[in-house]
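[Meeting: bench + compute handoff]

Bench side (C.D.) handed over the final construct sequence. Compute side (W.E.) agreed to return the predicted structure before the next meeting so the bench team could plan truncations. Sequence as handed over:
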Amino acid sequence: MRDPSLAPLDTPPNRPLARSFAEPMSPVWRMIASGGVAIVVLVIGLITYFGVVDARDASAWVEHTHRTIDRTRATLSDLKDAETGQRGFILTGDDTYLEPYTTALATLAADTSALRLLTADNALEQRRLDQLAPLVAVRLNELDTGIVLRRTQGLSAAVARLQTDRGKNAMDRIRALIGSMEVSERALLSARSADEERRAEIVTLVLVLGIVAAVLIALVLNGLLTRYAESQARVARDLDLQNTQLESQGLELELQNQQLQEQASEMELQQQHLQEQATELEAQNEQLHQQTIELETQTEELRAITGELEERTVESERARAAAEQARMVAESANRAKAEFLATMSHELRTPLNAIGGYVDLMELGIRGAVTAEQLEDLGRIKKSGRHLLALINDILNFAKLEAGKVDFNIADKSVLELAGGVQALVAPQMHARGIRVVYERCDPEIAVRADAEKVQQILLNLLTNAQKFTSSGGRIGITCAGTGDVVSIAVSDTGRGIPADKLESIFEPFVQVDRHLASDTVPHSQRGIGLGLAISRELARAMGGDITVQSELGAGSIFTLTLPRGAPVAELPDLAAIEQERTNQGVGSDRGSGRPSGLGGAVVDAHQAASAEITEPSPRRDV
């Protein structure tokens, strides 16, 4: 329904709407107003640009002429310098006066070449240069002849050559030609300079006229635009008044429309609320149905899990029973192995000791005199007996390690004493076989926390292995180092090396890598059964350390023993007295058996073997 307050629009009195707009500008004037100044500026810019280009070209030609004149003067100056140097040399005979002459020869060629290029567009100058070239050559030849005469025949011959005036005639003609060239170039310079000034004046005139024209056009256009702007302002004021009336009517219409929209919104909200309630009911129903399905699925899964757990329980019981049975069998086998090894050790050691005793008796001649050949055979029997006894000890020691029945006397011990003692033991054997032993003395303050006898046994094993696989002329090294809480003792050799795929297997029991390769350095009776490295690593690990290896075929190997670091040697008690007392006690307790007990016996056996056989390798550990 129309609001009665909305009155029709009225135009201001005596100013009808059709007449309130000013007369529009014609298309021609609009074109002039919008682009007149730009066109004028463009035309002036183009004229100025081409004028500047012409002026720049004219300036370039002027500069070109200046360079040509400079080069003509430089050419004449070069010839004068050459004359000066030549005459100074002729008068004095001193080569230092030839420096201007030598320099002039170098610059003269460059100056004449530059003149050729600069006058390439001038045929007359090119002809003059053609005439100049032979004259320059004649003059230079005359100068050179005078220098040669001065060097070979003396001052009088050179002066006589100068008095012939040959060089002077050539120089006069050169000056005339260069003077003609300079006169021509100066005439060109005057003409080109005048052309340059004329072009600069044209450019200046064009700029002044263009600026004046642009100012006049700008003033005209400014007046037209001012009048047009005033008429548009009047029209804008009339439009603002009418727009105000229209806005008032629009606001009233918006209020009515807003009321209608609010009523429609309320109805839509009510309808949306009803739809939401219906949707919510449907969702709840669907949720209940889904929960019912999930509960049924979970029930089925629980039944399946229960059955699976029951089956796993039965399987676990069976596996546990089987494991218990296997453990009992393993313990029984381990006990049987330990009993067998103990029995074997006792049963085999007794006859071996007896054999050794009888050999000693025969060597002493108690049973009668023996020949040298028989003594040699008895020595071989004795070596073989010791080797067999060492193999039996290896097997027994390894069995003790596996059973965990090895006792360790852990204490802080100087690395210098341990490594130095073993090095002193094996050095004679190494030297006898032509192997160089390089022992880098350890820091006397470094100590390890370990069993000293076990450490010596490990080092002896590593050194024996290095000796077996190092040919005569090779090198075996012993180095020590302490890093943090760890001490490392490295035994290196220059032997054959170990293949990369065998580096781990060499520590396995009864494994011997490339046993046949030792045939040329180690007798068959001294190659062992492959327990040395296995026992050594087990001993090292039992003391909190380890043994690692690095090797390269053809280059050698490095075995590194690492052990926990002990207190500095300076802080240790007097170990010599304690060790002596412990040794005395051990000797008294072992007197009944006739040999040391435990794994330490392996070290004693090796020491005895090394002391008795200086020229043979120790029959102890091998790979």
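W.E. noted at the follow-up: DSSP finds eleven helices and seven strands in the chain. C.D. will use this when planning the next construct.
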